[in-house]
């Protein structure tokens, strides 16, 4: 054949391929999500093989391990004991609660590690919703935002670097920005869950925290989060959410879940100049783990390919439970 262009020329050797590679992964692209609980033991999470609910002592060791692998940010999620849960989730702004304690401890021992938090009521709510559920079963917006602001302040006081509102209430980014500024935390950033979809991929996470919506009284409880999390059918709406979050003062925009929403990452990349994060969520993690356990896929290759796809779609940062494994694989490459 007489071909002018032979794209295979640049694929011929490993060196050539490395010269024309458009995207790369590095350990400081990752944000490592960690679960904490109040006990002294380390509890494996059965729906997410390889992850644990850490005690505060053991958490420190795991964060040190992550640091040594080049990871520069962790996000903390609490497993709150049932007796501390309530209808309004007020434990979320207890300055001596699990998360403020964990943040203070980490900041004392490892001040350089960036600490991100999750702002939402679900781990603290006996109803399992991100907001306060009214007597007639409506997830209240403005009342919830007041609680979220208090939660963000308590996290900032403990030393958090990045506040991550994951609740999808309207106006919460602006309200949290104002509350932080009023308290003198103008250097604490906001990484908003901008386009957070009402997704079945969060299943293993809700098992890890025992935080799924449920009805324990006669109060009607919405069975899912679709009155505040986004409809998986919608893409333009994500652009609207991004514009609002940007106007309200978010520093970083996040898309969640990741893999089924690569188009949304791409779309926000076109629409905004802010850094974009992708959340490779629990269900995505557990599917890979389950297939790898059966030797149906090559775990390392699949994980690195998946994480790279987020970068290619336009993400700068990736929240992933694979963070330490991936960082180790990249180091040994
Ligand atoms: C809480 C929250 C959830 C996740 C992160 N923050 C669960 C939910 O919204 O129900 C999911 C993370 C994952 O699945 O890995 N608002």
Concise synopsis of the structure shown:
The protein is of the alpha/beta class. Helices cover 38% and strands 17% of the residues. The protein starts with 13 loop residues before the first helix and ends with a helix.
List keywords for this structure.
single chain, 333 residues, alpha/beta, TIM Barrel, eight-stranded parallel barrel, two-stranded antiparallel ribbon, 12 strands, globular, binds ligand PBG
Layout of helices and strands:
Elements: H1 14-19, E1 30-37, E2 43-44, E3 52-54, H2 56-68, E4 73-79, H3 98-109, E5 114-119, E6 132-133, E7 139-140, H4 142-158, E8 162-165, H5 172-182, E9 189-196, H6 203-209, H7 236-248, E10 252-256, H8 262-271, E11 276-280, H9 282-293, H10 299-313, E12 317-320, H11 323-331
Parallel strand pairs: 1-3, 1-4, 1-12, 4-5, 5-8, 8-9, 9-10, 10-11, 11-12
Antiparallel strand pairs: 2-3, 6-7
Ligand PBG is lined by residues 118, 120, 122, 130, 166-167, 202, 205-206, 225, 281-282.
Describe this structure as you would to a colleague.
The chain is α/β, with parallel strands linked by helices. The protein has a single domain, classed as TIM Barrel (Alpha-Beta Barrel), CATH 3.20.20. Helices cover 38% and strands 17% of the residues. The protein is built from eleven helices and twelve strands. The strands form two sheets. It has an eight-stranded parallel β-barrel, surrounded by nine helices. β6 and β7 (139-140) form a beta hairpin. The chain is globular, with a radius of gyration of 20 Å. The model has no long low-confidence stretch (mean pLDDT 97). Bound molecules: ligand PBG. Ligand PBG is lined by residues 118, 120, 122, 130, 166-167, 202, 205-206, 225, 281-282.
